[in-house]
Amino acid sequence: MQTAQVVIPGDLIDLSIGHPSLSLLPLEIMQRAAEHRLNQDDPALLQYGFEQGCGYFRKSLALFLKGQYGVPVNPGHLFISNGVSQALDLICTLYTRPGDLIFVEEPTYFLALRIFADHRLRVVSLPVDEEGLVVEALEERLAKQRPVFLYTIPTHQNPTGVTLPANRRRRLVELSKEFDFLILADEVYHLLSYLQEPPPPFGSFISEGSVFSLGSFSKILAPGLRLGWIHASPELLRPLALCGMLDSGGGLNPFTSALVRSAIESGLLLEHLERLRAVYQERLVAMNSALRSELPGLLRFNEPRGGFFFWIALPEGVHAPDLLPKAQECRVNFIPGIRFSNCGGLGNYLRLSFSYYDSEELQEGVRRLAQVLRTGL
Fold first, then answer.
1. Does residue 206 sit in the same domain as residue 240?
2. Which terminus of the chain is less hemmed in, N or C, by CB atoms within 10 Å?
3. Exposed/middle/buried for residue 178 (C-beta within 10 Å: 0-12, 13-18, 19+)
4. Which domain holds residue 232?
5. What is d(CA 21, CA 33) in angstroms, rounded to the nearest whole number?
6. Same structural domain, 240 and 312
7. Which residues contact 172 (CB under 8 A, 6 or more apart)?
8. Domain final residue pick, 250, 267, 284
9. pLDDT in tens, 96-131
10. How many other CB atoms are found less than 10 A from the CB of residue 67?
11. How many domains does the chain have?
12. What are the DSSP E strand ranges found in 130-210?
């Protein structure tokens, strides 16, 4: 019986998946956290939860984020979610109506586009360069159209890996206030920086009143927890906490929150996060080395400084969707760039993930991909 969302055949090296490998899933940590929390003799963790999320958990999370972000985090400015996907869906439910206009980056996270399509939103794409969202393009578009919100992945963007510099972040916030739109900052990779510290997250701008900063334990602890947070002003969080779904079902994931609280307060989460950074940095270096040695001068890409992904530009005339069946025949997989495009472009790009496999398997996967490329040119 299948339990995981993705099952990978044993002979396939699937460089498409942005998941942690099974060896990185913290089973022992969660066992210890569960034992600690269940020994507290507090049955309240099995009750319907407070709508905004358990106050004790939000206090622990705020202290943890303050230590990682380097900026103060108020527990009252945190709302506990079932992860970023559910947070996006909830915000769309409460802040948009079918037909509303939103802006996204081009390229952007393809599964976010699925959520926006579910809500029948009109999506307009804005270009990304080597420093992230092109703010000048946003300003030009705002002269013609006013979105309900802008969805951005500012740090180690999925799929490009680029990080938005501090001056562009500040300008985005200024524009959001001037033109009255919200910023949905998907910051799930902010704590996974390996080679360079990013600017402070968009959570540092929540006093401006237009920012939702979205975080998740899926990338820093385990996806199966389905636990994340929304960092925003009380005014923006109030409609979420008062919505009918939470009035009926209570706060989201109170039991899991209680276990993760123990993981935070015991230092186990920080210990695990430091291990992840070391392992992922090693894997990033291995993929970068393999790409440069196996395909010297053939591909264009920038080495990411964190996150999970390499964004690869193929030689002129080579289209990733045409290449994919040949790659799969050689037992390697990737995601074509067109999947990350809202307008059917980016056909000569592909995304590779280094999060799932160890260094030797990554090198073998790139070797197989190189074989496909060399025979296809």
1. yes
2. N
3. exposed
4. 27-267
5. 21
6. no
7. 133, 135, 138, 150, 152, 164, 183
8. 267
9. 999 999 999 999 999 999 999 999 999 999 999 999
10. 10
11. 2
12. 132-133, 149-152, 182-186
C-alpha to C-alpha distance for 227 and 142, rounded to whole angstroms: 34
Distance CA 220, CA 92 (A): 25
137-144, long-range: CB < 8 A, 24+ apart = 138/103, 138/172, 138/175, 139/175, 141/103, 142/175, 142/179
Token code pair at residue 189: 């990779």
Tens of pLDDT, residues 155-201: 999 999 999 999 999 999 999 999 999 999 999 999 999 988 999 99
Residue 251 sits in the same domain as residue 284: no
Q: How far apart (Å, rounded) are the C-alpha atoms in residues 138 and 126?
A: 7
Give the burial class of 1: count Cβ atoms within 10 A of its Cβ; 0-12 exposed, 13-18 middle, 19 or more buried. Answer: exposed
Can you tell me the distance from the alpha carbon of 66 to that of 241, in angstroms, rounded to the nearest whole number?
23
Structure tokens at 19: 């998941």
